[in-house]
Design brief:
With 156 residues, the chain is of the alpha+beta class. It is 18% helix and 45% strand. Strands 6-5-4-3-2-1-11-10-9-8-7 form an eleven-stranded antiparallel sheet. A hairpin with a 4-residue loop joins strand 8 (118-124) and strand 9 (129-134).
């Protein structure tokens, strides 16, 4: 029983452990949701299977969001679906935040229109009204129905 408990604890906290990230970029990050409000410099670090979004205000870390098989924030770790429910919208697919941070298509590429340096997706259902644009300078995600805005752009 002790071994089972030890393995369980290692697996639980292993989701939030320190990772070696292949890419690090400083960006201007704007997040507006009912639970998160942020507009300042952020660092996006990612590797093949993990992402870290580190949000700063006046040079101090305000929030760290680690995404791999779990999403870990300052308050603890949770599933991607639980994170969406608590911080964004429960109607979103589990991989939405990860795909937006990395500038990948959402909703399996639904209504994707390719552009020279990116793409645009407009998704309107009874649950969402999303405008999503990705190009070489900016990632823009806005859901009018759920009052969510995520904007990630190059610093000037």
């Amino acid at each position: 029983m002790r071994y089972f408990l030890a393995v369980f604890i290692l697996l639980l906290f292993g989701g939030c452990s320190i990772k070696n990230y292949a890419h690090t970029d400083a960006k201007i990050v704007i997040i507006k949701s009912p639970r998160l409000k942020f507009s300042d410099i952020g660092y996006i670090r990612h590797s093949k299977d993990a992402i870290e979004l580190e949000l700063f205000v006046a040079g101090h870390v305000l929030q760290r969001i680690h995404i791999n098989h779990l999403v870990c924030v300052n308050e603890g770790c949770m599933s991607k679906s639980s994170f969406n429910q608590e911080y964004l919208s429960g109607v979103y697919p589990p991989s939405l935040l990860q795909n937006v941070i990395l500038g990948k298509e959402i909703y399996d590429g639904k209504n994707s229109l390719k552009k020279d340096n990116g793409f645009i997706q407009n998704i309107k259902t009874s649950d969402v009204d999303i405008k999503y644009r990705v190009n070489s300078r900016e990632i823009y995600f806005k859901d009018k129905k759920n009052h969510i805005l995520i904007k990630i752009k190059e610093p000037n």
